[in-house]
Specification:
Glucose Oxidase, domain 1, 4-stranded parallel β-sheet, alpha/beta
């Protein structure tokens, strides 16, 4: 199967641009492989500390040099519904390892925060930075160098990207990512959204709102809308780091546990001691990154990954740009309609044919690289399957040839649109990204006067005061990585949606984030340069005419450009927002963090 020329062209230029950095990364990987696992050279005191809590049989195994030891890096906590099922995974993994004569140890835990809890709250300022904390925590967990391979337990927004960045730092080790799956379907997401809007209009009270939210987010498992958490799962599978068909199996089911056991066995089959050595640094190459981006576009995935995938690629010595993403979007059809890009949820997506059908369609139409390494073997074709449990045996059957729910998941012959769900915007205001998959065509071009706010609280106050009564492009600035840590501004969605429903032309322009659940209102987000760096967004004034054209990919100040550029940038005293809820501990991160189109990372 040959890949389309447009896809190949982007792949080639990533490889060419990354030639030196990728070469250096692979050289470090090979040196780490040759050095091997430290168990053989640890002093007796070192080794005694490492297995002090193990059983006598495990101690005997770990004292030798041949037995395999699997590291478990977990993001378990019992507050996050998506991560609560991980409580029992270490026991399942250890039992599966013992069944093949190996051992497994929990190498360490990483923090896991929930953007759903912190939306609109001070804690949200730590959300993006938590990705890099998780990467560093992963490195600490693996730094004991006791392990021949590792499995990673993580689901949600910054957690999977952070785990993968950390795993790639130990790129000589095989890595299998183990999901926990989405919660069963509850109150439909579009109904929940309607109640949110009614609450903002004062038509229902807090009790009704809480009831709707609780019926939507109602049990253990990942939230069912297609935000960053579920985009993460799609990416891990299409990039070859999950077992086939593993991404969207509900927690607490026999199939879920069978997949976890098999993931353990698979990880231990890929070590340097065996015949199928597959380190994670070889799995994640330029082809895998392009496959991930194609999957993101084809499903209308999370805008957060316009930063995360750049940071992940950099951890593997690969240099990816927003221009690469934009060109891939132009070459990729949109095949999925999952909320907010539709009314269905990820359980419906899975029932329609899920990842097996999606990968099959994209492979057969030449949109994916088939010749990649995966944890399941050579080539992506092994992922054109559905995982099933038949008579207590895990089996993988061919994916269906037709979608069971064509309004949710369609073929490349009848796409929902011929280009992907994400787009790059550029112009005299800088560069930003927009998620267009959920925006109706009639709302994709907005030309309106600016209404400027220094933070989301100002916009919400103006809405509640009844001051927003016409067309506008709401400019929310001083929310970028260096300013505040780039919080999500998803709390603005109901207010902006109400204004759009009232017939106004409305859009958002911000150097903050809008989350993986970006919805029906056009939002130019991740604006670079950000306001605190004196970017053009800091020079916008109330009443300035701005044109956002998501079809052409432009974002433009309309007026005397020379006068605009000569303006003195606005400033804002952000010190009060740098304290409280732990934010004072992240001053170093705010000073080190890079720009959004370079991954908003503190590592480069």
């Amino acid at each position: 199967m040959s890949v389309r020329q447009a896809i190949q062209d982007v792949t080639n230029r990533i490889a060419a641009r990354s030639r030196d950095s990728r070469r250096d990364y692979l050289a470090r990987l090979e040196a780490a492989r040759e050095a091997g696992v430290n168990r053989a050279v640890l002093s007796c005191g070192n080794l005694a500390h490492a297995f002090a809590a193990c059983s006598p049989a495990e101690k005997a195994q770990l004292a030798g040099t041949k037995s395999l030891n699997l590291g478990i890096v977990t993001s378990y906590n019992d507050m996050l519904s998506a991560h609560q099922p991980y409580q029992f995974y270490p026991d399942i993994i250890k039992e599966a390892a013992r069944s093949i004569g190996a051992t497994a140890q929990v190498a360490g835990g990483v923090p896991a925060m929930c953007d759903g809890v912190t939306q609109g709250q001070p804690g949200m300022d730590l959300s993006l930075f938590s990705r890099d904390v998780i990467a560093m925590s992963t490195a600490i967990a693996l730094s004991h160098n006791m392990f021949d391979a590792a499995v990673y337990l993580g689901i949600c927004d910054k957690i999977v990207p952070g785990l993968l960045i950390g795993a790639l730092t130990f790129g000589h080790l095989p890595a299998v990512f183990v999901p926990a799956g989405p919660m069963p379907s509850g109150l439909p997401n579009d109904e929940k959204s309607k109640v949110r809007q009614l609450y903002m209009e004062g038509k229902v009270g807090r009790a009704e709102l809480l009831e709707a939210e609780s019926k939507s987010y109602h049990s253990a498992g990942t939230c069912t809308f297609y935000g960053t958490a579920n985009s993460n799962q799609m990416l891990m599978e299409i990039m070859g780091l999950h077992l086939p068909g593993a991404s969207f199996v509900n927690p607490g089911t026999p199939l879920r546990d069978a997949l976890t056991r098999e993931a353990t066995v698979r990880a231990l089959s890929l070590t340097a001691q065996g015949n199928h050595y597959t380190p994670v640094g070889h799995v994640i190459d330029e082809k895998a990154i392009v496959n991930g981006l194609v999957g993101l576009h084809a499903t209308g995935g999370s805008t957060n990954h316009t930063m995360h995938l750049i940071a992940i690629a950099a951890a593997a010595g690969l240099q990816v740009t927003w221009d690469d993403m934009s060109d891939l979007s132009d070459a990729t059809p949109l095949l999925a309609r999952v909320y907010p890009n539709g009314v269905a949820d990820v359980n419906h997506f899975h029932a329609a044919g899920g990842m097996g059908f999606l990968i099959q369609e994209l492979l057969e139409s030449g949109h994916l690289h088939e010749d990649v390494k995966t944890v399941w073997g050579e080539g992506l074709s092994g992922y054109k399957v559905e995982a099933k449990l038949i008579e207590d045996k895990l089996t993988f059957e061919p994916a269906p040839k037709e979608s069971a729910l064509p309004k949710v998941l369609t073929s490349t012959r009848t796409p929902f649109q011929t280009s992907g769900g994400l787009k790059l915007l550029s112009g005299n205001l800088g560069r930003s990204v927009i998620k267009v998959s959920a925006v109706k065509p009639e709302h994709r071009v907005v030309e309106a006067p600016a209404r400027v706010f220094h933070g989301q609280e100002g916009l919400q106050a103006a809405f509640k005061a009844g001051e927003l009564t016409g067309d506008m492009i709401a400019v929310v600035r001083f929310s970028g990585p260096r300013a505040l840590g780039m919080p999500e501004l998803h709390k603005l969605t109901p207010s902006l949606g109400i204004l759009q429903d009232r017939g106004f032309k409305v859009a958002l322009l911000t150097d903050g984030r809008m989350s993986g659940a970006s919805g029906k209102v056009p939002a130019a987000i991740h604006m670079t340069p950000e306001a605190i760096d004196g970017g053009p967004i800091s020079k916008i004034r109330d009443g300035d005419m701005i044109r956002l054209d998501a079809n052409e990919g432009t974002l433009t100040f309309l007026g005397d450009e020379r006068e605009f550029l000569s303006r003195t940038p606005a400033t804002e005293d952000l010190r009060p927002q740098h304290y409280g809820m732990g934010r004072e501990l992240f001053a170093g991160f705010r000073s080190l963090v890079g720009v959004a189109d370079r991954g908003a990372s503190v590592f480069q």
